[in-house]
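Session log. Operator J.P. requested a structure for one protein chain; no other inputs attached. Running the standard single-chain path with token output.
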Amino acid sequence: MVTLGVLIGNRGFFPAHLCTEGRQKVLQVLESEGIRALILPEEATRNGAVESLEEARKYAEFFKAHRDELDGVLVSLPNFGDERAIANTLRWAGIDVPVLIHAFPDRPDRMSINFRRDSFCGKISVCNNLYQYGIRYSLTTLHTVDPDSEAFRADLRRFAAVCRVVRSLRGLRIGQIGARPAAFNTVRYSEKLLERTGITVEPLDLSELLGWIRRMNDQDPPVQQKLEEIRAYTDTQGIPEESLYKLAKLGVAIDRFLQEKELKAVAIQCWTALEEFYGVVPCTPMSMLSNRLIPSACEADIPGVLSMYLLQQASGKPAALLDWNNNYRDELDKGVVFHCSNLPAAFFESQRMDYQEIIAGTVGKENTYGTLVGRIAPGPFTFCGLTTDEFSGRIRTYVGEGRFTDDPLETFGGYGVFEVPGLQQLLRYICANGFPHHVAATLNHVADVLAEALGTYLGWDVYRHQA
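Structure written below.
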């Protein structure tokens, strides 16, 4: 549940009943949307709002006391509001969280002295002061909007998702198992730039993971439990029993690493050491992790798994890492995404376990069981690509939206046909700015959430793709 501090703005010579009624209405909407509100009792300040220096101090201390609970702040203006009191409250509270500015609309038939709000104007003044104070903030889609409207509720849901993304990056810990494949310079990244943002990467040598596995027995309870989970997760018909046990032990070892190091996501060196020296591909345990909202990326791609994590936090749904892989006929806004694959089960129309056809050509079919194959189900998706740019000292991202289609295609691995308006423009941007061929996706439209969270509150460079 997202928790928002709530500030009701007031200016004394406007009707007091507007604040009282507005406060009640906003709190009712928050409750109905499943958002927890932190607000002082109505009697603690004049009209249950904030206007004076004393009230600003009181609210600042209140927010300070609840600093660890607050994900964001909603500033609502039932009338013009006092811009200084609002800005001072946020500055003195010392809380670095997203802030949403909302203003009530006036009605043409209620513009007398007893009902006139002037929130339209007051919102501009509040934003002007926050800009002067260096306090970052978000805006509702419409300049003024009735809290009872669907438009405001949509704004609240979007803002709650922004808060989730921003909060989730505080102290984020990501695991990296093994080195990147030698052939993949494309997944190089700057661990230091991520650390400066508060994101820690915890490495684990692949030999250590395999050492843990060597100490396991087939009958160990965690191994048996993981084996049952694998069989319940995917169709394993035709897969050698030996390979299934190897996959189960690998899953147990990865779980141990995640738990011991308190990790929220993991990227794994998926080829070719595991195939050559252990005898399976790690795709199924990775897919299972992603499907239960612990993003897992192949090819030790830390920026890729971070992109997955961001999408997951924004959408509340699993994310996958894919390749921008093929054109689709001569349709310029369509293409094919592919991996070989560890996509979460939530992405597929149907899926089954098989061997990895690409790597099998060099290490042998018997060493490549464990991949999941199937087609991505049609529907909306959001994509996100991320890179750490050491030359500029910046983290750069691109985000956008499209849809997976049901256009005919026969191939192998995990794949889908997609459509993105302005695809050629997007591909030109990716190539011109040195992004990798990997892209993360989630089955929902949340590009605006990521653009707001990463651009406004994290200060990353964000390209929001639109045709």
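Operator note: The chain has a mean pLDDT of 95.
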